[in-house]
Design brief:
The protein has 531 residues and is α/β, with parallel strands linked by helices. The chain has four domains: 275 residues, Aldolase class I (TIM Barrel, Alpha-Beta Barrel); 53 residues, H-NS DNA Binding Protein, CATH 4.10.430; 98 residues, Double Stranded RNA Binding Domain, CATH 3.30.160; 57 residues, Double Stranded RNA Binding Domain, CATH 3.30.160. The protein contains 17 helices and 16 strands.
Length: 531
């Protein structure tokens, strides 16, 4: 099979998405990650549009990249400028990159109403700009902006614009659906017609405004495109760009194309998550291939089938893209689901073990009262340990009291006092907080600190409250989900009650107990290895 070139524009087009921001350091770290994956071209930004991108291009030259070519991005020259004196073009050359990508107008509407030039002048602008960059020993990729819309409006002129880029010396012509409105069957028809008239390699760049950017990209490859542009996680202006997190595995695993990414495909999920972290945006866990839900199974019959043969319900092996299979716990879960979880802790357990039957019934009872364990693996693991007599109680609560006070225009004041017992010793402490739950969390940590110093590493990272039966108003039962981390791993815990404080307390206790017991288990394993 032929080889496909992947061109990443996360740092430029992706950065134009709402809520997406990259510092220079973020950009450099992402470049290294994309290079490690095997991406062919990485578009770093538009030098001249802001000082940050100019600085980025200076600093990126210090990286020792193995696969990727760093690409500077910009536009054709201004209508009234000679190419040699045009600031945009010279800013691109000043970056020192061996590859430059420029875009020009393919749609007659844009030439006439946006650039305010004649159609003939627009052709000259394109050819001059490409030729000037080519004369300065640059590989020039030409992005034909709004090409598909331009082709629909005036096909002959749209083709003439890319022929102008070919005359200028472009190495690749990229057909762009900038507004994201073209559908795959329209794209294929247009692509095939263009392919018959253009002899140099063709690429594609799709936006996702119609929700088909990935489909169009994949079908373009099948039709003959040799370069696919896109962003990780689909970041980009408006509805985003073609999501390389999906395009890459489809092209390599399902279509059989060669790529420099192929040998590193197991890094795909890690790369996707890393870029989410750099944007400081929540990772979309429902993404195909790289989301946590992509290989998550919930129904008991599905889990049973998966245990027997993963091919029954998965279209690829999760490890091929660096993801992992998960079995979710819910009211639909049967003994197979429970058993798969228990085996991680008690490997020799069998499906007909009475403890498994009891635990399955217990889970269903709890979920019937509002508990949910899909995002509370910490609480569920504690239930397993209790069922199999592996649970070690960390502390006993003697009692707590919370005071919430409001004075005039001052912020609400919360204070918690708590008494706990660890063995035969007692501790009474008090702590203030932004709210009653925060105060209670602080108080219990203070109370347990001298018994379990490792508690200082355990932090609450997320706190969610869900009303279970809204029709009951303020008397409704609530479910509290807490996410915690010790810097090395993270876990979720759950509590349910008609009282928000009690539900929060349940989740807090599970969170702290799980964290302490987990640390103890790690320490014991390390000690055993040393011996």
């Amino acid at each position: 099979m032929p080889s496909i070139v992947f061109y990443d524009t996360t740092l430029r087009d992706g950065a134009q998405g709402e809520g997406v921001y990259f510092s220079i350091e973020d950009k450099l770290r992402i470049v290294k990650k994309l290079d490690e994956l095997g991406i062919n071209y990485i578009e770093g930004g538009w030098p001249g549009s802001n000082p940050k991108d100019l600085e980025f291009y200076k600093m990126v030259t210090r990286l020792n990249l193995k696969h990727a070519k760093i690409t500077a991005f910009g536009s054709t020259r201004r209508a009234n400028n000679e190419a040699g004196s045009d600031k945009t073009l010279n800013d691109l050359l000043a970056t020192g990159t061996s590859v430059v990508t420029i875009f020009g107008k393919s749609w007659d509407l844009h030439a006439l109403e946006v650039l305010k030039v004649s159609l003939a002048d627009n052709l000259q602008i394109i050819e001059d700009s490409v030729a000037y960059l080519k004369q300065n020993n640059r590989e020039v990729i030409y992005d034909a902006e709004h090409f598909f819309d331009g082709y629909k409006a005036n096909r002959d002129y749209a083709v003439e614009t890319i022929k102008a880029a070919v005359r200028g010396g472009a190495s690749t012509i990229v057909l762009c659906d900038t507004n994201g409105g073209s559908l795959p069957f329209e794209m294929i028809d247009i692509f095939n017609q263009v392919k018959q008239q253009i002899s140099i390699p063709l690429g594609v760049h799709f936006h996702n405004d119609s929700g088909v950017a990935v489909a169009s990209s994949v079908m373009a490859v099948q039709t003959g495109a040799v370069q696919v542009q896109g962003t990780f996680n689909g970041y980009g202006e408006r509805c985003g760009n073609a999501n390389l997190s999906s395009v890459i595995p489809i092209v390599i695993l399902k279509m059989g194309y060669e790529s420099t990414v192929k040998d590193n495909l197991h890094l795909l999920t890690e790369t996707s998550h890393f870029i989410s972290e750099m944007t400081n945006l929540q990772h979309d866990e429902r993404q195909p291939f790289v989301g946590a839900c992509a290989f998550a199974h919930k129904a008991g019959t599905h889990v049973d089938a998966m245990i027997k043969n993963p091919l029954t319900l998965e279209h690829i092996r999760s490890e091929q893209v660096g993801n992992q299979r998960r079995f979710l716990l819910s009211e639909q879960a049967g003994r197979s689901t429970i058993l798969s979880k228990v085996k991680d802790i008690v490997p020799a357990t069998q499906k007909d073990d009475p403890k498994i039957i009891h635990l399955t019934n217990k889970i269903k009872e709890l979920e019937n009262t509002g508990y949910q364990f899909e995002a509370a693996e910490g609480s569920f693991e504690l239930l397993i340990k209790k069922a199999f007599n592996l649970y070690e109680k960390v502390f006993n609560l003697e009692g707590f009291r919370i005071i919430v006070e409001k004075r005039g225009d001052q912020p609400v004041f919360s204070e918690a006092t708590i008494k706990v017992a660890v063995g035969n010793e007692y501790e009474i402490t008090a702590a203030e907080g932004d709210g009653p739950v925060n105060a209670l969390d602080s108080a219990i940590r203070k109370a347990l600190l001298r018994f379990y110093p490792e508690i200082t590493d355990i932090n609450l990272t997320d706190f969610k409250v869900r009303i279970m039966d809204e029709q009951r108003g303020t008397a409704a039962k609530v479910r509290v989900l807490i996410q915690s981390s010790d810097g090395q791993s993270s876990w979720g815990t759950v509590g349910v009650s008609e009282n928000l404080i009690e539900a929060s307390w349940e989740a807090l206790v599970d969170s702290i107990e799980y964290g302490i017991l987990n640390r103890k288990a790690v320490s014991n394993n390390d000690a055993a290895v040393v011996k």
